[in-house]
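Quick one, tokens below:
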């Protein structure tokens, strides 16, 4: 059967997993044409209705309307096609902090029929080179402030045609200069629903990043499921958050969802907890996307600020400890929407709307997705039994030419690598990453469960728990890596205090035998904990 495509360059489609390793797709209640360009469906359609409505704001007070974003995207698309010769299916790397130009570039690549590869601002040349080579990138649009690492990455890949913006050193050669010569109109590329729209690299929490590919239809599906059915925003909302647009959690939460709703987004180049709190107070932010530790930091400093506009808070990227949920709710009255998503699935696939939140639970399967708990042989287990989380829905894992596809997809099910249990009401309760279960003296111990206890201690700022090997006894034991709160001194007595504290909250055999105090925990740029590095250091 001939594949329907609008791509001339078939590189990505030729490197999709074989049919028997592809996830089963569920499109119940979702109707899509055979031909979809996600940028057109989102940006062009909304700009027709809301031309003069605010769309993107910056911390400096700059505002782009929907018409301005559309015209900028059209001009960039014209530069890509007319000046650079981009063909549908070519890969385009984007490198910039969150901001209006990055958003315009993202839509422009899709409008031109290209495949967007958005990278994290903090990535260095070696990381960028790996992505360029893996995705066979031929074009790059980059903020000039971040050009040095890209130039170094491209030293051995001269075929990458680079254009820079915000370039004060050579404004005449910058992307903006070329955009000025275009009239703001563009004939959008005709792309198929199953043409690849983006390649997103995983954050490397378990080692070498993988390249996950997503269709134009997938982009629309996360808007029609999580955004429409769980988040339920309206056109008056103002979104803000910490994840870069190169992280699919940020792409959805800070660009796709606000545009889908006809709302606005405040894109911050610096988006730590202080900046997020300031943004709510200054700009009237209603909706925040960030990670669990940011909510804890904000809870400690929000008492003096006016947060009356804030009504929706989404947490993902790591499991949300109930202690943090409780603290944020006590300080603000807001019920955090926890959720689990993945780069492979594009966005959140388990998470409940605010009226269905149960503290400590990740939530129910997002309408449009089906989630079950399976044993190691792929059989569904009874409610209450811990097993492997298995998911199907309108999106699914499609690695670019990677043997690890077989680890993620089995018999049509996506296995994100998490151990969960499901209760009789359909709520899912996180236990651990499947490789974070610690078997000690015959007991199965969840590292995150121990972390959730320790993070509730007033002197603990951050914590990670892994299994360490006792070579003499030939068994594993629980080890905690702890970042202490400011002013606390790391001592043997403090370590014992934390162990004793654990024993008052959970079964004593789960408490750490060893506590190591560290200045910081290893994390990816998106804030995800890299436990594999801690496990390596403990051997």
């Amino acid at each position: 059967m001939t594949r329907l495509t609008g791509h001339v360059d078939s590189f990505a489609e030729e490197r999709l997993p074989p049919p028997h390793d592809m996830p089963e797709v569920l499109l119940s209640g979702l109707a899509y044409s055979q031909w979809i360009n996600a940028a057109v469906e989102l940006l062009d359609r909304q700009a027709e209705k809301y031309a003069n409505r605010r769309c993107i704001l910056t911390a400096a007070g700059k505002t782009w309307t929907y018409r301005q974003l559309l015209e900028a995207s059209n001009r960039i698309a014209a530069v890509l096609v007319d000046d650079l010769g981009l063909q549908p299916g070519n890969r385009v790397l984007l490198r910039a902090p969150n901001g209006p130009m990055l958003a315009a570039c993202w839509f422009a690549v899709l409008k031109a029929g290209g495949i967007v590869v958005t990278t994290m601002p903090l990535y260095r040349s070696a990381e960028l080179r790996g992505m360029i080579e893996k995705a066979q990138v031929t074009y790059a649009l980059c903020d000039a402030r971040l050009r040095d690492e890209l130039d170094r990455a491209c030293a051995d890949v001269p075929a990458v045609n680079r254009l820079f913006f915000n370039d004060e050193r050579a404004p005449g050669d910058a992307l903006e200069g070329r955009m000025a010569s275009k009239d703001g109109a563009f004939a959008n590329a005709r792309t198929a629903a199953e043409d690849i729209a983006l390649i997103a690299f995983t954050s490397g929490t378990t080692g070498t990043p993988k390249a996950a590919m997503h269709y134009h239809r997938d982009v629309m599906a996360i808007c029609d499921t999580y955004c429409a059915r769980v988040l339920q925003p309206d056109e008056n909302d103002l979104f803000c958050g910490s994840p870069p647009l190169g992280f699919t959690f940020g792409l959805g939460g800070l660009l796709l969802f606000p545009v889908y709703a006809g709302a606005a987004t405040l894109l911050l180049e610096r988006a730590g907890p202080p900046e997020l709190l300031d943004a709510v107070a200054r700009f009237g932010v209603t909706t925040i996307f960030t990670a669990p530790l940011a909510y804890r930091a904000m809870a400690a400093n929000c008492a003096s600020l006016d947060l009356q506009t804030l009504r929706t808070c989404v947490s993902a990227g790591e499991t949300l400890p109930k202690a943090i949920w409780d603290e944020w709710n006590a300080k603000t009255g807001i019920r955090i929407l926890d959720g689990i998503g993945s780069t492979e699935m594009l966005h959140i696939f388990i998470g409940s709307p605010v009226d269905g939140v149960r503290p400590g639970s990740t939530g129910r399967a997002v309408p449009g997705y089906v989630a079950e708990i399976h044993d190691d042989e792929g059989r569904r287990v009874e409610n209450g039994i811990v097993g492997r989380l298995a998911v199907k829905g309108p999106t699914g894992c499609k690695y670019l030419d990677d043997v690890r596809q077989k680890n993620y997809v089995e018999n049509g099910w996506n296995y994100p690598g998490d151990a969960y249990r499901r209760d009789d009401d359909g709520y899912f309760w996180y236990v651990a990453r499947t490789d974070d279960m610690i078997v000690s003296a015959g007991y199965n111990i969840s590292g995150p469960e121990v972390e959730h206890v320790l993070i509730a201690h007033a002197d603990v700022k951050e914590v990670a728990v892994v299994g360490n090997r006792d070579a003499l006894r030939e068994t594993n034991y629980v080890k905690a890596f702890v970042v202490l709160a400011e002013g606390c001194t790391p001592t043997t007595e403090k370590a014992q205090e934390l162990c004793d504290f654990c024993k008052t909250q959970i079964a004593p055999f789960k408490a750490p035998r060893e506590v190591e105090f560290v200045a910081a925990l290893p994390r990816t740029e998106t804030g995800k904990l890299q436990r594999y590095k801690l496990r390596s250091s403990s051997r």
